[in-house]
Amino acid sequence: MPNAPTIKLDATSNPMTRTLAPDEAGLAEAARLLAVSELVAFPTETVYGLGGDARSDRAVARIYEAKGRPSFNPLIVHLPDLAAVERIALVGPKARALAAAFWPGPLTLVLPLRAGAGVSPLVTAGLETVAVRIPAHPLAQRLLMAFGGPLAAPSANPSGRVSPTRAGHVLEGLTGRIAAVLDGGPCAVGLESTILLADPEPVLLRPGGVPVEAVEALLGETVATGGDAGKPTSPGQLASHYAPEAAVRLEATEAREGELLVGFGAVKGRLTLSANGDLVEAAARLFDTLREADRLAGPDGRIAFAPVPETGLGRAINDRLRRAAAPRG
Ligand code: TXA
Ligand code: MG
User: Fold this and answer.
1) Which residues pair with 41 in a beta bridge?
2) What is the pLDDT of residue 119?
3) How confident is the model at residue 126 (pLDDT cuts 50, 70, 90)?
4) Position in ligand 1 atom list of the atom nearest CA 235
5) How is residue 239 annotated by DSSP?
6) What is the pLDDT of residue 14?
7) HSE-up of residue 273 (Cα within 13 Å, Cβ side)
8) CA of 35 to the centre of ligand 1 (A)
């Protein structure tokens, strides 16, 4: 067939980002794409990650390009187990205790990078530390095993947008920019991981899926808070990071003229994060609800959020809501 069209597979020209099923064939295809430095979004228990081979400069450069992310933002490396973590990073005593308690799960530890780790310098943005996480989602685990290497994966959304908690969200933001998305349904936690420096003294860089109270209880000490909004110790801390299109007002107990109210517990709204005031449910629904509220509010719309208690997962929820409400440049 001399005139048969040739199909060129290139991450910079993926008019048809493919959706892969969560089965053996889907996993094998995802692993094959990753092995040739293509990008595959995959589910974790927190949010969908935009995965690329952490050892490949080309794959990591493609992640930055696909997200439109400023290149000073380092990425989280996802690994299947502690042995794999120790091949790229130095695990101190507090980090080890946290790993035993919370991995696999929604915790990211920022650790000293091991010499000769083989991780692309683009992953760490030239820092001497590396952020690592062992995800609990069974599909993420199976993908890491099938691929057999470290996966750099930021949240699978264009930079500055709300993180995706469903395969459909990934496609809304990144169709045509990545090779495929592995569809594992909705994410259970719904908020990104907690990011911590563990040793010598613990510092919280981003509140997330593991409540800081649980970290403090385990370590038997208070955890300092680093990375104020706008001071990017952890660049995901940029104030406008979770911006919807609509203007956002917080601590609202009723809707003002023209506002769409998102309720919580006793405060009823057109939408609600959790009618029962359940923080786990509210976290799982947060990003989906932000998208839905943004869509319902329309182009010049305004959204008001009911108060959420500042305890447990409520801290991470309020952190994301404050960023959504922050003034934008
Ligand atoms: O739940 C999650 O953490 C998700 C899933 C996919 O694992 N990932 C995620 O990645 O939220 P991303 O890239 O959106 O956020 C990673 C954060 C960024 O704010 C980045 O600056 C910070 O981690 N980070 C990465 N390496 C760091 C380092 N060496 N020191 C300080 N912060 C670091
Ligand atoms: Mg993100």
Assistant:
1) 50, 181
2) 95
3) confident
4) 21
5) T
6) 55
7) 29
8) 22
Edge-to-edge order in the sheet of strand 271-272: 247-249, 302-305, 259-263, 271-272
**CATH of span 18-225:** 3.90.870.10
**Ion ligand 2: residues, Cβ under 5 Å:** 155
CB-based contact 99:218 (threshold 8 Å) = no
What's the average model confidence in pLDDT over 299-306? 94
| Edge-to-edge strand ranges of the sheet holding 129-133 | 18-20, 180-182, 40-42, 49-53, 151-152, 76-78, 129-133, 107-112, 194-197, 203-206, 224-225
Query: Residue 300 has which token pair?
Result: 């010049």
Distances from the Cα of 101 to the Cα of 96, 215, 291, angstroms: 9, 9, 33
Residues touching ligand 1 (Cβ under 6 Å) are 44, 46-47, 49, 73-76, 108, 110, 124, 127, 129-131, 133, 153-155, 192-193, 195, 205, 234-236
Residue nearest to atom 10 of ligand 1 (CA): 154
Mean pLDDT rounded to a whole number for the chain: 89
Delimit the domains of the chain by residue range: 18-225, 247-325
Q: Whose CA is nearest to atom 33 of ligand 1?
A: 234
In this predicted model, what pLDDT tens digit does every residue of 188-242 receive, in sequence order? 999 999 999 999 999 999 999 999 999 999 999 999 998 543 344 444 444 555 6
Which ligand is closest in space to the CA of residue 158?
A: 2
Is there a contact between 189 and 293 (Cβ–Cβ < 8 Å)? no
**Ligand 1 centroid vs 279 CA: distance in angstroms?**
23
